[in-house]
Amino acid sequence: MIQFNLQKTVLLLCATLAGLAACSRSTDDAGSVLVQNEGVLKYVPADTAYVFATPAPMPDDVLDKLEANADSIYSAYETVIKSTLSELAAAEEGAGRGREFNKYLALAGEIVGLMRSDRLRAAGVPRSPQMAIYGMGLIPVLRVALADTEAFEATLDELEAKSGEKMSVAELDGRPYRYVGDDSARLIVAIIDDYVVATLVPTALSDAQLTTVLGLTPPRQSIAESGDLAAIASRYEFADYALGFIDVERVAATFLDSPSGVNAELLAAFEYDAGALSDVCRREIRAMTKVMPRVVSGYTDISTERLGSNTIFELRSDLAAGLAALATPVPGLGVDHGGLGSFGMSLDLMAAREFYEARLDAMEADPYECEHFADLQAGVAQGRQALSQPLPPIVYGFKGFLAVVDDVEGIDFASRQPPTNVNARILVANENAEGLLAMGAMFSPEIAALELEPDGKPVPLNLPQLTAQFEAAYVAMTETALAIAIGETSGDRLSDLFASSAAEPPPFVSMHLDGGRYYQMMSEAIAAGSTASADAEPVSPELKKAMSQVMTGIGEMIDRVSIDVRFTEHGVELPATLTLFD
Prior knowledge:
Layout: H1 4-23, E1 50-54, H2 60-67, H3 70-94, H4 105-113, H5 117-122, E2 131-136, E3 139-145, H6 149-163, E4 168-172, E5 175-181, E6 185-192, E7 195-202, H7 207-213, H8 223-226, H9 228-236, E8 243-247, H10 248-256, H11 261-269, H12 279-289, E9 294-302, E10 306-314, H13 317-324, E11 341-346, H14 349-365, H15 374-388, H16 393-396, E12 398-409, E13 421-430, H17 433-441, H18 445-448, E14 459-460, H19 464-467, E15 473-477, E16 481-486, H20 494-499, E17 509-514, H21 515-528, H22 541-555, E18 558-567, E19 571-573, E20 576-580
Antiparallel strand pairs: 1-2, 1-8, 2-3, 3-7, 4-5, 5-6, 6-7, 8-9, 9-10, 10-19, 10-20, 11-12, 11-17, 12-13, 13-16, 14-15, 15-16, 17-18, 18-19, 18-20
Helix pairs in contact: 1-4, 3-4, 3-22, 10-12, 14-15, 21-22
């Protein structure tokens, strides 16, 4: 049986190194490294199916700012992980399988402790390690640069000593490597060319292919030589600090074509037979991968003020164009209104109907023949039936909504006291706002009695459902939007919503949040929460305190959070920005 506990220990160590490599940089190196065949990228093959790399240094002033709270957060995480492992050990021991697991609890604290800057340096990991997680074929490889290989070897020795069992050792081309595993798979950790390399491979993988996986045999062409990452960075304005992709077409091709090299042995180990797929299924699956051929992600903005990133689900051009028509301008959507936060979306329902109809037309004109897609093809008739159902014209006038929470006061998590005061605004965009109001008047005499004009001026809204819970409520209307405010002060800000410009291009979904206050509220809620839920074991006071400290630490770093979902000519984009406290 696989040496499960030590394997988890090494995996946690590798994850620690990967996380640190993603955020620990200096400015020792200058210039772009994406087109230089040196450093970590020279080990990544140009035809890799996936990669996420941090090949270039992050500014020192940014690192200094991020690291200010890091040690306290990591210390709290140490308690969280140790508590979680204790629960796992108790469950395993109760099942008669986990007595030896307890001896690894102390080791878990040591591994998490490596995330603190002083321990990290002592383990031989520099402040500016290059890192890449990539595929050799489909086999995952983690490669992290080291400053002191002997110190890292000593750290591995220390981990083994505290666990009470040593990893097995083997050699490849005269180079030793450590591993744990069984007859089916091995987790390998090796120090090669000033890098620690970790990978999970079939036990039956040949030495020739393992040499390739570990990088002892360099790829015929590296990803730096191919220029793929440089092209992605240029197209999406990514910085060199961290970026990567998943190539969906390459992943699918592994299972559709006759495999070779590493993939041939990997799929043979899993007894996968590509010949089991019919020619028509292979053709249609390959066509499907062209719908979303690639997912890319990276940093777009790194400074002491903010961290910006973007993830793009690249789509076939006709689908990207069709989706782009779905989002429509909604007053104030995509703009940060301050306060506790906001959330909204836009959707042109008529455009959505036309997009859906076009997809049904395409599936009728060229139906799927592969048996695996029979249910999908059968859904065409159901889709036609759904579209045939009549909807009121006012429904197609809907364009979206925006909800803004300006303030929440008086929450006491310890006594479970709900807010004593809420100030919030909700806007619904509709081409026929007066018709929307008339529809509401059919169900509420209070709404019917409103003397509301489409001039954007707020009037009191005396609905029993609202006045019973909030100090005041107001409603205002223009020709294309209806808005409601709750709270004494929010009524005066309804006009601001109508006057707000929509972001350009309009987002499909947009969220803005007061990060500092949100995480502080989470911290208070965790600290004051019950020690047990209906379907969970009791939570210890130590664990609650540690989780609360994690939330507090994050809240002391992050001022505002902004996340959008946008439909662009590239596909679906998810830009995000973390604004940092001064």
